[in-house]
Amino acid sequence: MQYFLSESVWDTEQVNGRRLDLMRGQTATAPHADGVIVIDDSGDRRDGTATAHVGRQ
């Protein structure tokens, strides 16, 4: 699955357009005056007090 998602050739405009169509079509994720939904995939897994790929700052 990872290879499929990361190595396949995607038309980013078409994929983003489809994503927006799907989100706008659902009441829970459609735009409205009360707020927004933020999707952020930049997080890292934690293991106890350590976070992968992070050194002391």
UniProtKB/TrEMBL annotation:
InterPro entries: IS701-like_DDE_dom. It comes from the Bacteria. Residues 1-57 form the Transposase IS701-like DDE domain. Residues 34-57 are annotated as: Disordered. This is Transposase. The lineage of its organism: Bacteria, Bacillati, Actinomycetota, Actinomycetes, Kitasatosporales.
